[in-house]
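Journal club side-thread
Mid-discussion, someone asked how the predicted structure for our own chain would compare to the paper's figures. Pasting it here so we can look after the session.
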Amino acid sequence: MHTTQSETYIAMRFAISAKVTALIQAGKSPDEAKAAQPTAADKGWGKLGLKPDLFTALVYNGSVAPPRK
């Protein structure tokens, strides 16, 4: 089976999401999650305009429930 670039990208996003979710479950703050560098395994995607720290922050913020008012 031939893996397309899109399939590789989707797999990378799921892998990073799983890493960030584990950091959230461990009680890590957004800054601690960035410091853990969950995107470090795949340097290639960081060259596409979305920096690793920003990508980590987006995944982190999208994975936690907003505070109740």
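Post-session note: The radius of gyration is 13 Å.
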